What we know:
alpha+beta; 7-stranded mixed β-sheet
Amino acid sequence: MKNTEITPHCFICNRRVILWVFALAVLIITLLILLPAATVSFQRPNNTWDQTFLEPSQQIAVAGTPLTVAIADSHSEITQGLSGRERLKDGRGLLFIFQDTDYRTFWMKDMKFAIDMIFIRDGVIVDIAQNMPAPSPHNLPAAYKSQSPANMVLEVNAGLADYYGWEAGCTINY
């Protein structure tokens, strides 16, 4: 009798292995193609942002202190805010106007300078986040959630609220 080496062979098992390898290869290729495209769609290069909405368009007074503000009331303007800007000129601010009154969360993503955030409800300051720092390369951007519901938020250069003595209860005239 002849000694024959028996090699296990299962046609069905080999087919499963081939299908798994093929599916894994398709998944890896798909991720390599789609992941960079998805990442690019979430980035907002500064040179494509709307530069015109930050042009001062309205005069307001915060506790009697006059300010010239730009208005952010569309979704894209609210999302953009002051992100990516080099600075905010003295006596200027950005006033976010919302359609509803709710707790507001703001964060310092892509900010290049520190600001004060003044949360306003129906023309009265309800909360202030002072000296919100621009993120450093090694830290996540700071975030702040208002302590009271607000329908407007005013962003100004850091220290302005303290300098003028703004606090909860002060009025905004516009």
